[in-house]
Specification:
Blueprint lengths: L1 E5 L10 H13 L4 E7 L14 E5 L2 E6 L9 H10 L4 H11 L4 H10 L5 E4 L5 H4 L9 E3 L13 H5 L5 E4 L2 H11 L6 E3 L13 H7 L5 E5 L8 H13 L5 E5 L12 E5 L3 H10 L2 E4 L8 H8 L4 E4 L3 H10 L2 E4 L4 H10 L1 H15 L2 H16 L1
Helix pairs in contact: 2-3, 11-14
Length: about 375
C-alpha cells in the first residue's frame, strides 16, 4: 500500500509531540508499506526559518519530501492571535491569522493537488497548521486526520469547522481527544481509531546513583519535559513551595530545556536536557513523576514512567492525562491546592500504583498492539 504522511516538521532533530508521533507512525507503517512524508524545510515551529535542504531524502525506509516555507512568521503574529482568540473579530481576521501562522508551503499544497490521488491513504498531522488545514481539503476522499486536538481557543475558529467534517477517518491519541472532537464538531459518524503510541523497551540505565544522591533528602519528585510557563511549570514550582512550607521534604528535579527563570533553592534542581539513559535512570529513581501541563494530546512521559514502575501525578485540569492515570490506575490527579495531599497519597501507595502503571504500559504500548491500531486506521481510509 502507498501511504503519505503530511506533517509541518519532520526529523530526528525535531522536538514536538505531534511531530514525534508522526515519525513513529511513518517508520512503523514503512515496515510493510511504501511510505513517504511531505513536510517543510523548517526545524523551528515559531519562525519556520529554513533549516533542512529542500527536496527528497531518506529517513531509513521512509522517503521524505521537503518543500520550502514561503516567508517566516510575522513578528506581529501574537497580536493577531490575541485579537482572533480573545476579541471581537471577523471571519477575514481568522483567515488572515491562519495564513500568518503558517507554515505557508505552496509547493506542498501543489504536490497534494497534483499527486495526492496516487496514494492509497494520506495521514495528516495536526489540525491547526496550514499544511493540514489547506492540504486535507484537496484530498478528503483518501485522508485521515490525526488532529492532536486540545481544548484550546483555536479549535473554536470557523475555518476549522469544515475541516473536521472532511476526512474519511480520524486517528485520535486518546479517548478524551475523541470525545472533545465529537462534542465540538458533531462528527461521531466519521469512523475513528484510538492510536495511543508504541514504545521501545527502556535502554540500559542505572537509577542507583540518583537514589543514593537524593534519598537522604527525602522523596525525589521528577518533572521531565520543557521547563516553561506554557507547560505550567510555574504552577508546579508554586505548588512545590507550598508543599515545602507545610513541612514536606524532598527534592524537585527538573529535567529538560529551561525556558523560564528557575529559583535558586537547594530543593529545586534544574538538570537541563538529559540523555535517554539518564532519563530512564531518573524515572526509575524517582518516587513520583509530576506532569502539571494543562494541554497534552498524549502524556508520553507518563507511559515512560510506568514502563519502569514509577507512579505519576497530573493536573486535574488536563482531562487527557487525568484519563490516562485513571485507566492505568497508576497515580493521582490534583486540583488547586491539592498537590501536597495527592503527592502524599501516591508516596504512601507507590509500589502498587507503579506496578499497575507498568502493567498498563506493557499491555497498551507494545509494538504489535500499536501496529494493529495503525493498520485499522489505514484500512478505514483505503477501503
Amino acid at each position: 500500500m502507498r501511504i503519505l504522511v503530511v506533517v509541518q516538521r519532520y526529523g530526528a532533530e525535531v522536538v514536538g509531540g505531534s511531530e514525534s508521533h508522526a515519525r513513529v507512525v511513518a517508520q512503523r507503517l514503512a515496515m510493510v508499506n511504501e511510505v513517504e512524508v511531505a513536510t517543510t524545510n523548517a526545524l523551528d515551529y515559531w519562525s519556520w526559518a529554513p533549516h533542512f535542504p529542500e527536496g527528497e531524502s531518506m529517513d531509513g525506509p521512509v522517503r521524505v519530501r521537503r518543500f520550502p516555507v514561503t516567508g517566516t512568521r510575522s513578528p506581529t503574529f501574537k497580536d493577531a492571535e490575541r485579537h482572533v482568540l480573545f476579541e471581537p473579530h471577523t471571519l477575514a481576521d481568522e483567515q488572515a491569522w491562519l495564513a500568518m501562522q503558517g507554515p505557508h508551503t505552496p509547493g506542498l499544497l501543489e504536490f497534494l493537488r497534483d499527486e495526492g490521488k496516487g496514494y492509497d491513504a494520506i495521514l495528516f498531522y495536526t489540525y491547526i497548521y496550514e499544511p493540514t488545514a489547506a492540504g486535507l481539503p484537496l484530498v478528503p476522499e483518501r485522508a485521515a486526520l490525526i488532529s492532536t486536538a486540545h481544548d484550546e481557543e483555536p479549535l473554536r475558529l470557523v475555518p476549522y469547522r469544515a475541516l473536521f467534517q472532511l476526512p474519511r477517518a480520524f486517528g485520535f491519541l486518546t479517548p478524551e481527544e475523541r470525545d472533545l472532537v465529537h462534542a465540538r464538531f458533531h462528527n461521531s459518524h466519521i469512523p475513528s481509531e484510538i492510536l495511543g503510541i508504541g514504545l521501545e523497551p527502556p535502554p540500559w540505565h542505572d537509577p542507583e546513583p540518583f537514589r543514593e544522591h537524593y534519598a537522604p533528602r527525602g522523596p525525589l519528585v521528577l518533572y521531565l519535559g520543557q521547563v516553561s510557563e506554557g507547560k505550567a511549570v510555574d504552577e508546579l514550582l508554586a505548588d512545590w513551595n507550598r508543599y515545602r512550607a507545610g513541612g514536606g521534604t524532598g527534592s524537585l528535579v527538573l529535567a529538560g530545556t529551561a525556558r523560564m527563570q528557575i529559583p535558586k533553592q537547594d530543593d529545586i534542581v534544574p538538570l537541563g536536557r538529559v540523555s535517554d539513559e539518564e532519563k530512564y535512570a531518573l524515572l526509575e529513581a524517582a518516587d513520583a513523576l509530576v506532569l502539571p501541563s494543562h494541554l497534552e494530546s498524549l502524556g508520553i512521559v507518563l507511559l515512560e514512567a510506568w514502563q519502569v514502575g514509577t507512579p505519576c501525578l497530573v493536573s486535574a485540569k488536563n482531562k487527557v492525562t487525568s484519563g490516562q492515570v485513571i485507566r492505568a490506575a497508576g497515580g493521582a490527579s490534583y486540583g488547586p491546592g491539592g498537590f501536597a495531599a495527592a503527592l502524599a497519597a501516591v508516596l504512601a501507595d507507590r509500589d502498587r500504583l507503579g506496578a499497575s502503571g507498568r502493567a498498563y504500559a506493557e499491555r497498551e504500548c507494545t509494538w504489535p498492539a500499536f501496529d494493529a491500531r495503525l493498520e485499522q486506521l489505514v484500512d478505514l481510509v483505503a477501503n
